[in-house]
Write a structure and sequence with these properties.
Helix content: 40-55%
Largest sheet: 6 strands, mixed, barrel
Strand order of the largest sheet: 2-3-8-5-7-6
Shape: elongated
Radius of gyration: 32 Å
Oligomer: single chain
């Protein structure tokens, strides 16, 4: 029986007729390949987008943020004391005390809202922003030196050496002519690019003390940033809980997960929905498998009847068709995955189509091919094609040996 079994498999793949080259088989393979290619490329692009977005957020931001529970801010001595306590912990890589403030930024007739980030550029900051500076200098040697985002510079027509006005209603001056908002001219010494539109279009780096005058408490710091070691980044919520217990209730501690949880939950849900929708392409292509195998069973009814007549069990006959389908369709799936990888890399290399950074946060396509995603695609595709094969093979159950032999 084993020799007969192997003979029929050999006949399918290696006989002079080459049954697998028939139009219906080629059409079936083509449908599977195209479906898997689209699923692989789409999932790789989505995974790449999610990974790049996360890396950008984590690269340009800290992992934990510490605020005072009241409206008061940190004095320099209090911030230094708290940082010394934090940096003794094994999970913390670095800390920095900063100023965050909102202001209006203007040059000539152009004006835009912005976010001031006051830092001590000479110290080892939690955010190494100098790595993102693409033009000019990252050093803020003078009190009025600033580094602005690339998109912000484009919007306000700024370049290195230009003067930018920073305007804030806080600490306004009262005069006989009314309240005059605080207005300070600053000098652009550098331009940075993080790759994320939200930061590049609104952020401005300057020294912390000058920046504090755009808050309600001049010469004080309003936030301490904490950078965690790589092994603890995904546990940032738990670390925030632990530090709250250590430092006490007078401090509010928030993690990057807290501020971005809605975004990443939405991305996970969209990924799940996308996999389901694109899997329907494979499901539709699997109809070709059912029709092709059904036609093949009808065509080989005589051979099947003879095999059953000489004593071959029905499950063995079915397994012959199942193995042929498995070999042909698993090869189609692997070919589709390979073409999907090529398609994904081509999309990232081309420059004709780009992302709108003001909508998608980042401005370029990226791909990622984690092994778990590749296995997921292969398993989903294989399950669908094998189920389709199983449904088609039920037709063998209706074959009557006596009728076949009588007709012969």
């Amino acid at each position: 029986m084993l020799k007969i079994f192997l003979h029929f498999l050999k006949k399918f793949f290696f006989s002079s007729k080459k049954e697998w080259k028939r139009f219906d088989n080629i059409f079936m393979v083509f449908g599977i390949v195209i479906s898997v290619t689209v699923l692989t490329a789409a999932l790789a692009l989505f995974q790449g987008y999610q990974k790049t977005l996360k890396e950008t957020i984590l690269g340009f931001n800290s992992h934990l943020y510490i605020f005072k529970d009241s409206n008061s801010n940190f004095s320099s001595s209090e911030a230094d004391s708290l940082r010394n306590i934090l940096e003794m912990r094994k999970e913390i890589a670095n800390t920095s005390a900063i100023v965050m403030a909102q202001a209006m930024l203007s040059k000539g007739e152009r004006i835009k809202g912005g976010m001031i980030r006051g830092i001590n550029w000479a110290s080892n900051n939690a955010i190494d922003y100098k790595n993102y500076v693409i033009k000019g200098d990252w050093k803020l040697k003078n009190p009025d030196d600033v580094v602005v985002g690339e998109q912000l510079a484009n919007n306000l027509d700024l370049d290195i050496g230009d003067t930018l006005n920073v305007i804030s209603p806080l600490n306004s001056s009262k005069t006989v002519f009314g309240i005059i908002p605080l207005k300070k001219p600053v000098h652009v010494v550098g331009i940075f690019k993080s790759g994320m539109f939200e930061y590049d279009s609104s952020y401005l780096f300057m020294n912390s003390i000058p920046a504090s005058y755009f808050t309600s408490t001049p010469r004080k710091l309003n936030m301490i940033e904490v950078k965690l070691k790589p092994d603890f980044i995904e546990k940032a919520d738990y670390e925030a809980y632990v530090l709250t217990a250590v430092l006490g209730a007078k401090y509010q501690i928030r993690s990057w997960i807290f501020f971005n949880s809605s975004l990443f939950m939405l991305l996970k849900m969209e990924k799940f929905v996308m996999i389901i929708i694109l899997s329907f392409l494979i499901l539709i292509a699997s109809f070709n498998i059912i029709s092709t195998i059904s036609a093949n069973i009808i065509e080989k009814k005589r051979e099947i009847g003879i095999l059953l007549a000489i004593g071959m069990k029905l499950p063995i006959v079915k397994s012959m068709f199942m193995i042929k389908s498995f070999l042909l369709n698993s090869t189609s799936i692997l070919l589709g995955m390979f073409l999907g990888i090529c398609l994904g890399k081509f999309i990232t290399a081309q420059t004709l189509i780009t992302l709108k950074s003001d909508v998608y946060f980042i401005d370029k396509f990226t791909v990622s091919f984690p092994i778990e995603n590749m296995l997921l695609i292969f398993v989903i595709s294989l399950i669908i094609v094998l189920l389709s094969t199983y449904i088609a093979l039920r037709k063998i159950n209706g074959i009557e040996i006596v009728e076949i032999l009588r007709s012969e």
